[in-house]
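Page 37, top half.
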Amino acid sequence: MHSKRKEIAAVILAALQSKKELLKSYYNDSGKIGHFYLDELLPTELALDIRTSFPDPSLMRIKKSLRELKFIGAQMDQYNPLLEEVIYAFQDPTIVSTISEITGIEYLEPDEMLYAGGVSMMKKGHFLNPHLDNSHDINVDKYRVLNLLYYVSPQWGLNSGGNLELWPNGPKGQPIVIESKFNRLVVMATNRYSWHSVSKVRSDDCRCCVSNYYFSKDSISKENYFHVTSFRGRPEQAIRDLILRMDIKIRMLIRRVFKKGISHTGHYYDKKDE
């Protein structure tokens, strides 16, 4: 059962183990937003198969607002089975354990429900404004501590746009740009200060990403805190920034009264047969 998943996990594990000390050093030296990336994660043919397995955008949910514009999908039983296998390969205990060793973060737990995870697709003009990820899991029991992003768009480069941006000094500072390069895995910490975004896509091709979150009973800083997914404007978007700041305040007020919100998110994997 899930033999493909185990095969993929074994390849990922070998890639991580082969550069574990280098990745550990990179993560520890990467500053306020701990991160590392690893290229050529999977065999090229498999990475291309993953890309061609992505669903048509009409089968995905679109998120469109001042905050973001992208297609998402987490109901994996509606898509090519290969996508589910690769997503859950990243949740193999050997992978989780190795990434714990690299980052030094204890008590890591993958998210079987894929809350805010799964697959995403961004077309020309799509974007993701600077934001902090929701601090907790879907039940508000565990802290979100790591984001795993695996990119599968061939011939993607910096000029294609759609690149990951980390804002260690907040959304008014200067970002660190990480190219959304084909067959690249990026692992980044998520906490109270891990502002990140995706620049506007300029390519006519689609930017495709497989994503997972890891959670822990403790926050990275060992502090207790809570915040909703919080978006801000880019440095040149003064009016949008004011609107999004108000949006944060309103949604935080709601969550202080209703711990789990007033509407249930649809961005998770509902395993109806289990």
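Page 37, bottom half:
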Amino acid sequence: MVAMRDGIVITTGARLHFGFFAHRPLAESMIARTSAVSAGGLLEQANYGGVGLMIDSPGFVLAALRSDRDRIVCPARTTSRDPSSSPSADSTSQFDRIGSRVAHLVGQYRHSCPSARQPPGCAIEIRRIIPRHSGLGSGTQLAMAVAQVLALLSADGQADATTLAQRVARGKRSAIGIHGFARGGFLVDAGKRSTDDIGRLVARADAPGDWRFLLVTPADSSGTGLSGQEEVDALERLPEMPLALTERLCRLALLEMLPALGESDIERFGEAMFEFGRSVGEYFRPVQGDAYADPCMADLVHWLRRQGVRGVAQTSWGPTIAVCCGDAERAKSLQDQILADGRWKHCQTLIASPLNTGAAIQL
């Protein structure tokens, strides 16, 4: 492939998502009523939303430049969990699938982009990836990175995150990954009130820089989280989320998690993070099988809580569990304990830092 020194390099983080604020089956086919102004009315109308946080790894790294035709290249064949590792059949397969996905996203962007903003032919090199369907928002981060690359190549670099997301059909439910791509940090998404909306960002805060998030994913690669049509079907089988649960989740986010971040109070933040995730998990139990997607991870959550760890939650549909730690030393100690235990010694683990900025763009 041609050298990338004259091109664009996009480096993303990953997204932790602790759950929705609200869910109304079939709401996507309903037109929002705009006349209600009471807080209760707004809660009844809004769908999805929720809270999440950006972390610095794993992440996608895409390099791109103008070319005589569209080309997708996957030369590295390693994941961002261990960039120095030798290629494996699984990592090669993941890169090939993501290469196909990138090609689809390029076509989707061209189809939806105004004619005056059409990007030129481009060569895109995939240098690092986020594992798919592990609860880390790989689909949105990849789509946003591709959209950003194409916008920059067509001198449309001022296009905002919402515009980019619409061009690659992201934001059908949560918008945490969209706003996180642009701004990083801890994010509160107020949800959407119509099918075409992108969830509204109503609050954002930096996470303390010395905190760490220990990610634990089951070794069994078949234990992936729901996505695509499976996720849609699962959500449609659920009853409407009770308004009392929505109100409780809003209180946890706005009155516990946000103030705790401002005060660097990891105990308060961790307890609210756990309660938020557990409450949403109980609501998802009919389609998830339990409050946590993977039984091995459910055991790990219970064990961690018995050890006095407050902040532990499944991210999105899992199966990855995120553990909030006060510093790198505490995260490493927990990682060592988990991998020394026969129940979890084959799990994949990674220590990540909060990412309080948007995706990095190098020209």
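Margin note: The chain has two domains: 8-206, 212-352.
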